[in-house]
């Protein structure tokens, strides 16, 4: 990461830290605030990145999905910029650009609170060569550290309060306006002091110039927006402002709802590739060509077009003309085409459809679970590609929703590329018996607990100005999701991977063409993938033990009876039943639904009410 500061010369970018490439798509991408050891920064938009140092990720199915969401001007998927020749160079210009945010800091010695702009009051100290994590801001005029050099001064702390609005704008807390109740102060000189409390933020802001003071708690709570100025429409990751006058909400730096990724993901499938598929995959190159001979030269000279060499040039040109006449590549069905293709392959794995990035072999079903599981598949090799298409604040997007109403842009103008990460690993796929699940769905359609979740879903959607999906199969999804979380917790105890590194992928199918499958996988950015600890647990003798333990643990929770008896009641809109951090909740990197749609009662008989699908 390299920081852009108001006093830094363009020829001397400042390297201030590092991040995992996968984090730039999942947990700390464009627009996210990242806490570094001595400062806080925000990842800037794609217009400030250096794509010439970013390798291209090839995955045609995923690129078509991105086109359907962001437009055909997106030319490709790219990894994070990285130059191996300057990887250890402290002044390298290659990296992910960030800017200090929030731009208000507090001196830990004299409690001085002030902005980084204009420069002078606070100084960036960065003199440790290959230790970019030691970069820090120091108070240049601190009375209590006047005899210490900048290198020995204690680092200033980011001011931990922010404001945001429902539209996703993010801004520094208006300390000056807040303390002075909107009145002018000739030369505000603020200080921040706090004290421990369990009742809310006990933080006092004082102005040494005029003597006024105010507690941050006045801006907290449901009516706190009345004490704050209206939103300025700021997008710090784009370094621009928009027209906005919505009410603002007090936020704390580090809040989990400051950034939610909107990502599209696809598994590599070793399908037979047609000539049309190859042309559509490289349409950003071929669409502008108007001469057949030029296309022939490009096919022979460009490595990316190598697959076209297997076809006569006349056929290649005819396919290009046909695609151009059709208005461009085919747009996939955005309702789940990626998952449908994966389901077809995982549910019917064959040795003919395998390659270096996909290997799947059916294995015997555990004894005693034949009536629940249709088949178990050990996926010893898989490759997943994830692309970031946007992000949201305050409200997380729904499952696999790529165009939520509150999605924020990654760059100024239409993006020409999007960040992506590819990971290789392993997994276990479990396919449930459709006849058993369909019969259970019919029996519990009007069950009080399912009905309570249905009403909570309507309240949840209404509170977020959304329309609930009438075709969403609530009973089926709750059962698959709960089953998945129970297995994640058990598998993590034995496979050698942490629970946060095990991801779920649920297959529901489409209305009239339902599916019922769970893929639990783990992956790493290394080209060799993972070590096989997870796929080995798919063997019948191991999986039987894990399933027995999972169902046994589902019958009790350390928070019972409160957890077991919980159902969402009006006016609350929680989308879960008997589920909590002690029994079912998983990390955000594992769960695809943000710990919604979970209820132990669908698998074990918690209250003898006939809801459980007895195993």
Question: If you had to describe this structure to a student in words, what would you say it looks like?
Answer:
- The chain is an alpha+beta fold and about 625 residues long.
- Among the domains are: about 160-250, no CATH class; about 265-325, no CATH class; about 355-395 and about 405-600, no CATH class.
- Helices cover about 20% and strands about 20% of the residues.
- The chain has helices at about 25, 60-70, 175-180, 275-280, 285, 290-300, 315-325, 335-345, 435-445, 450-465, 475-490, 540-555, and strands at about 1-5, 15, 35, 40-45, 55, 75-80, 95-100, 105, 110-115, 120-125, 135-140, 155-160, 160-165, 170, 190-195, 205, 215, 235, 240, 250, 260-265, 360-365, 375-390, 415-430, 505-510, 515-525.
- The strands form 6 sheets. Strands 5, 6, 21, 22, 23, 24, 25 and 26 form an 8-stranded mixed sheet that branches.
- A hairpin with a 5-residue loop joins strand 8 (about 105) and strand 9 (about 110-115).
- Helix 11 (about 475-490) packs across helix 12.
């Amino acid at each position: 990461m390299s920081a852009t500061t108001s006093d830094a010369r363009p020829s001397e970018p400042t390297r201030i830290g590092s991040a995992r490439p996968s984090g730039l798509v999942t947990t700390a991408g464009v627009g996210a605030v990242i806490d570094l050891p001595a400062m806080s920064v925000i990842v800037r938009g794609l217009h400030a990145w250096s794509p010439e140092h970013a390798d291209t990720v090839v995955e045609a199915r995923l690129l078509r999905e991105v086109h359907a969401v962001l437009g055909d001007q997106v030319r490709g998927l790219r990894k994070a910029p990285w130059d191996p020749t300057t990887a250890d160079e402290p002044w390298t210009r290659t990296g992910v650009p960030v800017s200090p945010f929030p731009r208000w800091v507090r001196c830990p010695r004299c409690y001085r609170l002030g902005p980084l702009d204009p420069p002078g009051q606070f100084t960036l100290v960065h003199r440790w060569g290959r230790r970019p994590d030691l970069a820090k801001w120091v108070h240049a005029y601190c009375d209590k550290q006047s005899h210490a050099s900048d290198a020995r001064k204690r680092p200033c702390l980011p001011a931990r309060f922010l404001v945001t609005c429902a539209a996703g704008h993010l801004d520094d807390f208006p300390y000056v306006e807040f303390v002075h109740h909107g009145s002018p102060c000739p030369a505000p000189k603020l200080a921040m002091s706090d004290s421990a409390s369990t009742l809310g933020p006990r933080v006092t802001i004082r102005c040494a110039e005029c003597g006024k003071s105010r507690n941050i708690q006045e801006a907290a709570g449901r009516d706190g927006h009345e004490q704050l100025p209206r939103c300025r429409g700021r997008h710090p990751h784009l370094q621009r402002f928009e027209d906005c006058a919505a009410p603002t909400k007090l936020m704390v730096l580090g809040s989990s709802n400051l950034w939610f990724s909107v990502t599209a993901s696809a598994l590599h499938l070793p399908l037979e590739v047609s000539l049309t598929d190859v042309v559509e995959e490289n349409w950003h190159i071929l669409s502008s060509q108007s001469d057949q001979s030029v296309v022939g030269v490009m096919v022979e000279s460009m490595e990316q077009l190598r697959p076209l060499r297997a076809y006569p040039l006349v056929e290649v040109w005819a396919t290009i003309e046909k695609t151009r006449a059709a208005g461009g590549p085919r747009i996939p069905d955005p309702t789940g085409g990626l998952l449908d293709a994966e389901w077809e392959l995982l549910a019917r794995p064959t040795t003919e459809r395998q390659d270096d990035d996909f290997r799947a072999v059916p294995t015997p079903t555990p004894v005693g679970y034949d009536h629940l599981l249709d088949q178990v598949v050990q996926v010893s090799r898989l490759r997943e590609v994830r692309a970031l298409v946007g992000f949201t604040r305050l409200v997380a997007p729904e499952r696999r929703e790529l165009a939520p109403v509150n999605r924020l842009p990654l760059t100024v103008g239409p993006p020409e590329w999007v960040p992506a990460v590819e990971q290789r690993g392993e997994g276990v796929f479990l396919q449930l018996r459709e006849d058993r699940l369909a019969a259970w769905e019919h029996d519990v359609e009007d069950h009080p607990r399912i009905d309570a979740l249905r009403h909570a879903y309507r309240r949840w959607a209404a509170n977020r100005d959304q329309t609930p999906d009438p075709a969403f199969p609530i009973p089926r999804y709750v059962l698959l999701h709960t089953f998945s979380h129970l297995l994640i917790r058990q598998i993590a105890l034995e496979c050698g991977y942490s629970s946060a590194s095990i991801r779920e992928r649920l297959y529901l199918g489409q209305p009239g063409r339902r599916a019922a499958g769970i893929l639990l996988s783990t992956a790493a950015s290394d080209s060799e993938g993972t070590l096989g600890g997870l796929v080995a647990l798919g063997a019948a003798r191991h999986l039987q033990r894990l399933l027995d333990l999972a169902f046994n643990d589902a019958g009790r929770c350390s928070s019972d009876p409160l957890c077991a008896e919980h159902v969402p009641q009006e006016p609350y809109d929680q989308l879960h039943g008997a589920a909590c951090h002690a029994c079912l909740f998983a990390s955000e990197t594992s769960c695809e639904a943000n710990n919604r749609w979970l209820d132990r009662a669908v698998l074990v008989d918690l209250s003898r009410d006939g809801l459980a699908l007895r195993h």
